[in-house]
Design goal:
Blueprint lengths: L6 E2 L1 E3 L2 E3 L6 E5 L6 E6 L3 H20 L2 H30 L3 H21 L7 E3 L5 E9 L2 E5 L7 H12 L3 E5 L5 H13 L7 E3 L4 H10 L3 E7 L2 H13 L3 E5 L4 E5 L5 H13 L9 E7 H15 L20 H17 L1 E4 L18 E4 L5 H4 L6 E7 L2 H9 L3 E2 L1 E5 L3 H10 L4 E4 L15 E2 L17 E9 L11 H4 L1
Length: about 500
């Protein structure tokens, strides 16, 4: 007997609703293809209704003192901490990352929400001296209005909370469109915000396709800011559509992140870092280590260490604490990654893995072997984002060549170098073209108190997390207070005016 699948509606104006005649879709567990939940396929009308609810709620939320908005976020974080064990399992069941990473996804959400709650008592402006007497000059931050948050499936709680918490504490109202593949994670997150006391209409959830819901939100004239995380090609479309309405569009896109391994590196430390960086979350992170650039003098030794360790690396049920890597997130992801592996077999040397795992429990899910190619710089697998457990290993002569290779891609999100030479470490901080650089650590593991984002085709210049997070969702207003009790004319030549 098949168990009933949990059904979820849209969350609009503080109510969970299922529109009459609504179509539904299911999300599935990538480990075994069992359904995780059933969701409404939202329409353009649903998106407009959610924007309307957010617009009506905006004034009251804007006028709520920022410290009070922060207190509500603290309650969200408290409730999310209580829900963490179950919510972490939901992340693993719906997305496929191992349980420790599913729980980490939720913990990152908690950490960021708590951090943003503190911004309710900061939201810093500036004060500057006036050129005139008895005049005060300052800036204040004000919310933009209705914000559309469009998020991917690979961090199904963390990335939405990066956007939602920052948007809410700064006084905006939100319409949230999650990736369809992880709609249950999104619904569970929104339920926590609802239970924590976020007023009706301040946060709204519309599930459905990007073509229907996403485009409707981007095109709606009442949406003033669009915050999007996803692929480069979709990001370009979002940017162009948003530009038609002169909206602020913030993009967090792809990466092809390098780890440079120099001959003086701690190879044991680097081995742990490369394994986690390349194969954590099955390589499905925009910050994943997808290129390993190794100095020639240690190339063969380290590659041997890496392949030997992978021989003891477990791929399987992500709920089993002994598992090192779970499935990839979906059938589409599996197909794309396997296609890149076939490309790699034609243009490079396969050193480990390279196939779909089959037999037994593997047949029910989307499991791919951790895969390593030895390749020259310039091949497709060394320059294009694969977003899977595929690592390109490239041999270089020295530091200078390593940096040239690292920088010669269209992305610039994360980067790393392993070396004991403090001078070369600081040179790398200056030389690597990326928004993030790690020294003696892999390319993943950002902390919420520092800005996150990249350069080149990784985004359009904005940053999430850290103190920079509020910039995406606020307008700067300059204020001039003249208490001289007379007309003073700034930037008028006093001699000619006389």
């Amino acid at each position: 007997m098949t168990s009933k699948v949990d059904e979820f509606g849209l969350f609009i104006g503080g109510k969970w609703i299922t529109p009459s005649g609504a179509r539904r879709f299911e999300t599935v567990n990538p480990t075994n293809r069992e359904p995780v939940g059933s969701f409404v396929s939202g329409t353009e009308k649903d998106a407009r209704n959610a924007v309307g609810a957010a617009q009506r709620a905006f004034r009251g939320w804007k006028e709520t003192p920022a410290p009070k908005r922060g207190e509500i976020l603290l309650e969200v974080a408290r409730r999310m901490r209580q829900a963490k064990p179950e919510l972490g399992r939901t992340v693993t069941r719906e997305m496929g990352k191992v349980l420790s990473e599913g729980l980490g996804d939720v913990q990152e959400s908690i950490d960021f929400i708590e951090y943003m709650a503190g911004e309710g008592r900061r939201l810093f402006g500036e004060t500057v001296p006036s050129e005139l007497r008895s005049k005060f000059c300052l800036t204040v931050r004000q919310p933009k209005g209705v914000v559309a948050c469009i998020t991917p499936w690979n961090f199904p709680t963390a990335i939405p909370n990066w956007k939602i918490a920052a948007a809410l504490v700064t006084g905006n109202t939100v319409v949230f469109k999650p990736a369809s593949a992880t709609a249950r994670c999104a619904a569970e997150v929104v339920k926590i915000y609802e239970e924590a006391g976020v007023p009706p209409g301040v946060l709204n959830l519309v599930t459905g396709s990007g073509g229907q819901v996403g485009n409707a939100l981007i095109d709606d004239p009442h949406v003033r800011t669009v915050s999007f995380t996803g692929g480069v090609s979709t990001g370009r479309e979002v940017y162009v559509r948003g530009a038609q309405g002169l909206k602020m569009v913030h993009l967090e896109l792809g990466g092809k992140n390098p780890v440079i391994l120099l001959e003086d590196a701690d190879l044991g430390l680097a081995l742990d870092g490369v394994l986690f960086g390349a194969f954590g979350t099955a390589g499905q992170r925009c910050t994943a280590t997808s290129r390993l650039i190794v100095q020639a003098t240690i190339f063969d030794r380290f590659l041997g260490m890496l392949t030997d360790r992978l021989g003891r690396f477990t791929v399987g049920d992500p709920l089993d604490p002994k598992t090192g890597m779970g499935p990839v997130a979906s059938a589409d992801q599996e197909q794309k990654i396997l296609e890149y592996i076939e490309i790699g077999k034609k243009e490079a040397t396969l050193r480990y893995g390279g196939k779909k795992l089959t037999g037994g429990a593997y047949d029910r899910g989307f499991f791919i072997e951790p895969t390593i190619f030895e390749t020259k710089h310039g091949t497709r697998i060394s320059k294009e984002e694969i977003f899977g457990p595929v690592l390109s290993v490239i041999k270089v002569a020295d530091y200078d060549e390593a940096v040239r290779v690292a920088n010669d891609v269209e992305y610039g999100l994360s980067s790393a170098i392993y070396t004991r030479d403090v001078n070369r470490a600081f040179r790398a901080i200056q030389d690597l073209e990326a928004g993030i650089t790690y020294i003696n650590a892999p390319t993943i593991g950002a902390e919420v108190q520092l800005p996150f984002g990249g350069i080149k085709n990784t985004g359009n210049g904005g940053r999430e997390a850290g103190s920079a997070a509020v910039e995406e969702f606020t307008e700067i207003k300059s204020v001039f207070v003249d208490f001289s009790s007379k007309l003073q004319k700034a930037q008028i030549d006093s001699e000619t005016a006389a």
